[in-house]
Every structure is written in structure tokens, then in C-alpha cells.
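Let's do one together. I've listed all components of the complex below, 855 residues spread over two lines.
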Amino acid sequence: MRAQPTFNNEVSIVLCGEAGQGIQTIETVLTGTLKASGLHVFATKEFMSRIRGGSNSTSIRAATSPVRAYAERIDLCVLLDRDAYPWLRPRISPETLVIGDPAVFADVEGLLPLPLTELAQQVGEKIYANAIACGFVTALLGLEPTALEATLQQMFDSDRDVLAKNLRAARLGRERGEAAVSKKQLTCRIEADAGVTGQLFLNGSQAVGLGAIAGGCNFIGSYPMSPSTGVLQFLASYAERFGILVEQAEDEISAINMGLGSWYAGGRAMVSTSGGGFALMGEGISLAGGMESPMVIHLAQRPGPATGLPTRTEQGDLDLALYAGHGEFPRAILAPGTLEDAFDCARQAFAMADASQSPVILLTDQYLLDSSYNVPQLPIPAAPHEHRIVETAANYRRYALTESGLSPRGIPGYGRGLVCADSDEHDQAGFITERSEVRVAMVDKRLKKLALLRGEAAVPHRLFGPKNHRRLLVGWGSTRPAIEEARARVNDPETAFLYCPQVYPLTAAVQQLLLRAQRLIVVENNATAQFARLIQRETGRLADADWLQYDGLPFSVENLETRLRQEVCS
Amino acid sequence: MTANPFIREGCDIAWCPGCGNFGILKLMSEALAELKLDPQQTVMVSGIGQAAKIPQYLQTHFFNGLHGRALPVATAIKASNPTLTVIAESGDGDMYGEGGNHFIHCIRRNPDLTNIVHNNMVYGLTKGQASPTSQRGFATPLQPAGVILEPFNPLGVAISLDASFVARAFVGHKEQTRDILQQAIRHRGYALVDLLQPCVTFNKLNSYQWFEANTRYLDPDHDPGDRSQAFTRAIEEDPLRLGVFYRKDKPVFEEQLDGFKTDKRPLYQRQVDLAELGKLVGEFT
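Okay, and this is what the predicted structure of the assembly comes out as:
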């Protein structure tokens, strides 16, 4: 007989079943219940690219203090179908409490039995196994039943019969859970934080969508592609409320050209896509560069090449974002690491694109977009975005040469001038030219704008840990919380973490930190250390080590903690 | 007589002497002036090719973008500011070849814009290869034994998609063509004008004389409200019919968008409602 599991301050719960079984519903109900009970909650899902069958799981951490990163450890493992056990086997440890139907998992040693099939039949249908599992888990955690009931009430408000059955199912699960607790099959001590209940709870797609609205987004034409579609659908659902024009384009080429047409006519447009779609947008990105049009491109990364792993995560498209589009022109790439950053970077992408009249790429990934947790607030700006469109005079020239390289941006129908924008090399008025001196002047003009993106318009970095560090961990995008947590756990006085939400161009401050570090370690969710190579190109500094992962899954806190401990000891 | 406000003075025109594009340019400036449109409210959108240079030579706003991509750009310009008159004008290779997918879906969307396609059945800017509308057997440097593909039938495709205005014109017929262009620009909704023109340099087959001999106007009793009849005329090849084949009043794209339901202003006049955003964020508790 093994030791009775005890969970102090934090518990990691994983539920796994096949596609179509309702894992998403369980995640929504359970996270809602945990948060309503005053626990900090983090949830992320991994799923297969199929509509039915396979194995999909959601990993939920509930804790006394904030949790924002994926952890490999499983405390409570709820198996909803036969395939779930082999799928999760690598993450199941002797300390894991495995919960499942004894009729299905007779051979699993130490199983905490929950007769899901039998209980679901009592309620009426297989689908009620979800509410049974939720009732069971919340009882194991010692949560008041009211929070779960309220969450179910909210969720199934529209159908009284379905609601009644869910409440009944939850009660059946709870009774089993309470019985397990009274038999001392586990002990759980996670103190609630009353402040959590009033906090926000959202996922990365929602944070990007809200940030886009904050940035003044009023046009999005896009073609659905996982994992970028969430942002498109989010904006579609608020189209009327925020006056956003939304169109499902026939392809990504159309999407980005629509976006450029909208900016030209006074809109604030973005596109949302993933690697394959972004590749199709390459010529459009170049057009933004040549026409000096602002453009915001949300590139939600998933593992490539080609179709790759459509529903999984990777940071493999930094090079693509950096080099997409023929010719030479400035751009910026932002890669948020938290929900607050996702909101803020999406907002800033619009401000930067508008200010620099250049494309700005917002680089996220499946992990960030599909993860959710509670946050105290989002950084909503105090004032709306700057109004940069000028009223044109009769002699208006779209590409007038100026000190900064920026020409005042007019739009058709506002003022007395004509706005002539051309993708061919052009003179100051927008007319096609092949004169060498004009060509050189226009190239210089366009490239000058990079200084703005590197300088005053840039999104600042963050440094965690000691200022006088010897060792510098560097991360960008969604790896931030896992690196932060691993660094805090190890708490080595010589190790700091530099987080770069603006991966290109690198600010002077970031370059300094990189050059000063005695030992430089770059952490990336890809196979070829793309950011490390960007750093080398920009600063000449070659990283001393690259910590990489490219199996389609995010870094776990444990993985980084182990690597850091080894690093610190060596 | 007052000067035509749509004529742009001092242009260095890149077309060959005798090119059909000159005639189209003149007809366009006349059509726009006679409609009493305001150059400050008119936007020309084009792709790449010889025809796509036309916005450079007209006194209007213009967006001369990428090869094949005029229609998505034009659609978004019209949606972003519906007070503008938007004309997407390019050649047959641009609109029917490189931009073929956009052509199909633009018709389905039905934005209120005019789509003028200079159709000379050959590629000019790249020097003489086949276009989607080249006839079978047409020999080119790239198809030395002659074209073996079926020519693209833009009118047939447009009518099959229930386009709201479908016409064909020939640049050699000034009065009729100016009238068709004006009808198309005035039409509310997507309007296609497939505009036949000779390429004097690279297409020795489809000359002015050939078009004169091989085209004929639709009969006076043709009913543009009859889709089947329009389609029947559209697939006739000998002779090619000219005139307004089909028209149908339909809801336009931009007016049906949710983003215009409560706020009718063009996008440039809008600003994010931060108080409302605060409320929305609050809904995520």
C-alpha cells in the first residue's frame, strides 16, 4: 500500500479523453469552479488534429499563489477513455493519483475508482460523465459544491433539462469524491485567495483579440487556420459592438491585400494566420514595405514544415517572420509571453505599424493562445490611439522626403490631395520611376524608419532576477512564464532571465545586456535556435548554450528547472 | 467647354504606339467626367501589367498594388470608406489568371465596385505569352505549337456566379463602350466590363480588324434580367457578343457587414470606445 497522497498549496490535475467527448467543456467548468473557489488557476490543452477519437487532454494547475506555466507533474489524473492511460503514461509518476472507471482500468494499480459509465447511465447519457468527473474532482479538493453548481448553472442556462441532469451528475460525482476523502484516500490543503474570484480569466486568443480592439483594430480579413482562428472568431463575435469589419477571405493572399486596402482607405487592419498562411502572405508583406503601409500580422505558430503538427506548438517561424517578403524594408516582430503582454503587444503592434508605416508581426503560438489563467487586470490604455492620418492639401505627395523617412499619411477622400500609392519604385508623388537617384533616396527613406522601431516605438524588455548576474537566460514569447518560474524555483543569485517581447529589431538596452552577460543561454521552442542566431547576427554575441525543445509541446517548468540546476551545479 | 478633371497632364506613358489602352484611357476619362464624379472621391485600383498602369495616367487616387490582387484591395477600400467610388482595372492575365480566385470570390461578395478588364488575349508586359483568354492554337514564344488550353470565359463564369452586372465592350466602338462603362460605374454592386482591345505588338491575330469582324452586339430584344439567356449569349464564341449581358440588383457586401450595423461612419472617422472595451474586459471575470 502506497503512501496517502497529500497536496499542499498546489495541485496539478489532468483530464484526458477522446475528441468529441467534451474535454473543452470539462476544462471550462473546472477552471470556472476553481477560480470561483478562490484558487489561482492555469489551464492548457493539447489535442490531436481530428474531430473524433484520438487523445486530448487538459492540464490544470490550481494553487494558493499565481500559476502561469505548464507543469509536467500530474497529481490527479482523470482518465475518460481507454486510450488516455497509455497516452499520459509518461507523465504519470508513483505519486500520481489515477482516477478512472474500474470497469475499464481493472489493470491499473492503485486506481481510485470512479464508475463513470454506470453513474452516467443513471443520469441518462454518456456525456454526463464530464459533470460527474467535475463533481468528483472538486470534492477531492474539498471545495464547496456551490461554486460548481453556479458554474454549471451559467453554462447550461438555456436548457433546464440539461442543467438539471448536469447538476445531478455533479452531485453523484461529488458523493463519490467525498467518500474517497473520508476514507482518507488523499489529503488536499490549498488555501483560497479571496482576491482571485474578482480577477479576469481568459486565454491567449482572447487577450490578443482584446488587445487588437484596444489598438483600434476595425478591419480583419483572414482565412481560418489553426491555431490563429481563435483571434479571427473573437473579433467576429464583437464586430457590431466595436464596429469591426470582418471577412473570411478566400485565401491568405486576399486577406493581407484586403488589410492593405483597408489601411490605405483609413482603416486599422490586421490579419490572423499561421505559418502556412503567412508564407502565402509574403508578397503582401513586401507590398506593405514598398508602399509604406502600416499592417498588423498575427502569426500564430505551430510546428512545420508543411502541414506539420496542426494543433501543437513551436517557436519555429521566427526566421520566416524575419525574412518574409522580397526586397529590403523595415519591420518589427513582437512576441508576447503572458496574457497581459499578449494584450499589450497586440495593441502596440497597431501603434507601431501606424507610427512607422511598416508591417508589424505579432508572433504567438498554440501554447500561448490555448492557455488560460487568472490575471488581475489587463493594461487598458488611458486614451485611444493617436490619430495620425493627415488631411491632404491639393499638392499632397504620399512619399514626400523628410528627415525621419516618414511621410505624412493621407487617405483618399479626406482633404484636397490625391493619394497615389504604387508598388513599383516611385517618386515622392507616387509615380513610377527608374531614376537611380530617386531609387536610392526611396530605399534610404524606407530603411530610416527602422530607427523608430528600434528606439522610441519599441516594446521594452524585462529583466528578472539579480541585476549583477553572471549567467543570463534569454527567452522570447510564450516561454516566459516557464522560465520565470524555473528561475524563481532555483533562485540562483548569479542567474537572471532576460525576456524579449520585441524580438526584432533589438533595442540598444537588450543588446547591452546580451553583450555584458558572461554566460548566455537562449531558451527556445524550436530545433535551430533561431533567436540565438538573430542575436548573433545583430550583436556578434554567440550564445554559450541553446536550450531547445521541438516535440510539439511547450517547455515544462520541471524541464527548465532541471536544466538550470544542472547548469548552476556545473 | 471646361477641361476634363480626370486627365492627368504630363504623363510619360509606357504603352506602344497604337495600343488599345490609349483608347480605353480616353474613354475612361470621358466616362468619369460625364458622370460628374469627383477625382477626390474616386480611387483606381490595379495590379501589374500594361493595363494596370492606367491609374498612373488618370487624375484620381490610386493603389497600384501586386499582380492579380486588385480586387481584394478594392473590396477593402470600398468597405473601409463606402463614400468612395472604386474602380478595379487591370488586364486579362492579372484579373483572370493570377487573380482568378479573387475574381470568383469578389463576385460572390458583390462589393459596390466596377471591375474593368482590358482583354487583349495576350501577355504584353512579359512579351507575348498566352493569357487565360488566348484562343486555342494561338502560337507564342512559350506555346510555340499553339495554346492547347480552353480559353477562360469571364462572362460565363460571372453569370454562373450571379454577378450583379456583366458586360463586354470593344475599345474600337467609342460611343457604345463609353455608355457601357458609365452604366457599369453607376451600377450598385459588382460590375464587370470585359473590354476587348488589340495588342498591336504581341497579338497579330486578334487585331482591330479581327475584333470588328468577330464581334456583334446583343440583339435589341435581349433581356438582361434573364440569366439563362445571358449565359447562352455569353458562351457564344463566333461572333463574340457585345453589350450588357446581365444585371441584377442585389445587396452589396459592405452594407451587410456587422461592423456597419450600428456605426455607419467610414473607418477613418472611428475611434475605439475604451469605456466599452473596459466593460468587455470586465465580462471575463
